[in-house]
């Protein structure tokens, strides 16, 4: 008996420790499947909707269409108080351009929910407007780089010179200050092409970036700024070499023909890169620097359709550096185990946004470029190799929703991302961590975390409510009428045992409520009065 007690006590401490030491990248893969109206993630995690297309902004206007890069910018390094900078990849022709909206957000430690206290759509008039704001990065100096994924002449001649000053107004990297809600400027020296994302080296001068372009114009670039934390001037290089071996950087010299001058046909950066013999990739999406110091970048189209990585012997390019490149993940199938069975799943194409979590796992968001309509959220575990794969499937987005984003809080407890252009007929009827019903029928920005870190947990203990409230009978008898008594009853909520909200009824300071449950199926439920302690209810 003594040995049994010791064993049970050990198991208790092991279970308790494991639950508190779990990180956001610890989960069992979801079952590979086609999209439904719902957002499918592991049962160990929750999501909370932050904002969706059409929601009013506090500074006026509404949240825009096609939310993309969802950048959490901490205030003084905080993981619970910061700015959420959200790009809008709006088209020049159909959506009125693009934009960036800034939300002041903070985490409420009592409710374990994120709250928005202010929201504003930035004004880009001073830099000739903006369009197709795709991904970007958060700088170490507290600003955000927003990338315009649009090239000259897209949509017709003249549509990229908004202010008619003779210069191309789109296809740039734009730096903004989320704290002051101002636009710092467009960085001409970083090149003009379909910018998707940038990754800034710890030296605060070197920037790796790619052109999200196909038909022979998808190139990999390195920009070395003249001064640290100042991207307004520097040298631009393009990669040339093997995709599975050694290559080098070639200086793009456009000093005699500034790249922001309207070119005759396509943008000048791409033309110079092609002439220099740059290596072509079929649409470079995201670029990230890993904790191992290597540079990772996603390529969406065939024949690439994978995430590459490379080492750069001289990030500052003071002398000729050597680039050694290899495939990190993709181009093959991986075994996904959902805890019950194992399925071999082809990686496919559409490799898009990337981000590393605190354990060194690489999160890969996949859009529909391959035509497979997987729209998966992959997690490539730290230690993965193509010979010994460690790939897991974290999520499947709602119908047609492209997963975009993605950033973490500094403590890696919270992941911010968005869904772009979901099917407008989606009816997910899915409850988030705040108890709000989300249908995912429009662009949506959200936060994801372990269940214990987001929203109040629904307790299944058999304890009664706060003594201010009583309820009977339990189990509910054949009349299916539950009587609740107490002072100032303002709200009653009923949940399934899995946390789906069934009822949410408001009252006006009543002392007794009779809740008719005749339409509710038999089973075990959880309910709250005035959002106080949750109690268990059995319906026969």
From TrEMBL:
Keywords assigned: Signal
Record's signal peptide: 1-21
Coiled coil: none
Domain Secretion system C-terminal sorting: 472-539
Top-level taxon: Bacteria
NCBIfam families in the cross-refs: Por_Secre_tail (TIGR04183)
Protein name: DUF839 domain-containing protein
Organism: Wocania arenilitoris
